[in-house]
Amino acid sequence: MANNNTTTTLYITRHGQTHWNAERRMQGHTNSDLTELGTQQATWLRDAVQDVDFAAIYASPSTRTYHTAEIIRGQRTQPVIPCEELKEIGLGSWEGQLVSEIERQHPAEFFAFWHAPQEYQALNGGETFAQVRERALPKVNELIELHTGQSILLVTHAVTLKTIVSSFEDRSLARLWEPPVIHPTSLTKIAIENSVARIELYADVSHHQVKPSSPQLEKSAQGRSV
């Protein structure tokens, strides 16, 4: 029997907590491995979506995101498909540096990054928020078209996820950092039908067994470390 479902559903998540998240270092394109808590976070999400029939699983090729996607995949047999367009914002010379040091050495640029993203110029040799949007959104739209009537999982990063969702809610770059906070493995769910998007979940952490209000999770939140 033909599948007459025309609703395409995106499940989008961020990777689990990494060592650099816990240390408050900026990551960008550079990788830092999942902590024990980060692995647990991915496992909690795996259990929460175990009954979802994903037609495909796409992940940023960064080790932290790809590893998260492999855990969430669980017993499913399909491969995790690496997707360059889902990588985090490139942070150039900031990558690997402590947030406190970046704020001290580059106060104006640091302020723009977190408080005026539409004005951020990426003088560190990385990417602007607009450049992330320009590479990520066409790919997401391509995947929506490819998987019409199906559910897919995208495993990405805080800035990239915010950029993707902002396009569906018509949120400007100036408002990018407004709540909700993108905690590790928080779940966002967007249903698209007849080119109309409905955000059903945004940064949901109800599956977390250690809640974001705890000191342990606060260190792994968006928390000025991407």
Automatic annotation (TrEMBL):
GO terms for molecular function: phosphatase activity. Gene3D superfamilies: Phosphoglycerate mutase-like. PROSITE patterns: PG_MUTASE (PS00175). Substrate binds at residues 14-21, 64. The keyword Isomerase applies. Keywords: Glycolysis, Isomerase. The active site is at residues 15, 88. The keyword Iron does not apply. InterPro entries: His_Pase_superF_clade-1, His_PPase_superfam, PG/BPGM_mutase_AS, PGM_Phosphatase. It comes from the Bacteria. SUPFAM superfamilies: Phosphoglycerate mutase-like. GO terms for cellular component: cytoplasm. It holds the Pfam family His_Phos_1. This is Phosphatase. It comes from Dictyobacter aurantiacus. The lineage of its organism: Bacteria, Bacillati, Chloroflexota, Ktedonobacteria, Ktedonobacterales.
